[in-house]
Amino acid sequence: MTKIIFVDSDGSEKIVEAKNGLSLLEVAHSNGIDLEGACEGSLACSTCHIIVEKEFFENLPDPSEEEEDMLDLAWGLTHTSRLGCQIIVDDSLDGIKVKIPNGTRNMSV
Question: Please, are residues 25 and 85 in contact by the beta-carbon 8 Å criterion?
Answer without folding.
Answer: yes
